[in-house]
Amino acid sequence: MSKRRDGAGDGPVDEATLRQYAVKLLARRDHGHAELRGKMRHKFGDQAPLDPVLEWCQEQDFLNDRRFAGFFVRSRIERGQGPLRIRAELRQKGLSDELIGAAVEQADCDWFALAREVHGRRFRQPPADQKEKAKQLRFLQARGFDAEQCFAALDAAVDRG
Predict the structure, then answer these.
(1) What CA–CA distances, in Å, run from 32 to 80, 108, 155, 156?
(2) Is the pTM of this model over 0.85?
(3) What percent of the chain has pLDDT over 90?
């Protein structure tokens, strides 16, 4: 039986091991600085010298919050998520409001058109009554669209139907 080494409680971890783990995570997908720090802290503990490793990753351009935010926004738009939800998820990942705002702005998305498209894929018919309208509104709001975008999507559905 082999012992699984997770780094926590095994004494000091050398920088090469930390770099190797960071590169392994970044090879799978982009991460934000705070997200990568959290994963590494979870694996290696609070005493691990993470700052030099994270700085090295940034110098090598393996770790770039601006690039990560841009990729994240585009992937969420492709999933049909609205700006409110995207912003909230990026905040949870530790990105600054300035960086989030720039990434959402650079996505150059027509949020009203996306809300109409998402609504049309989910609901084939316009709402028949208030109960159905409320259900469809909740769906769009949960996807991260603001009230104006949600109502515009519902109005377009009524016009289509």
Answers:
(1) 22, 21, 38, 37
(2) no
(3) 81
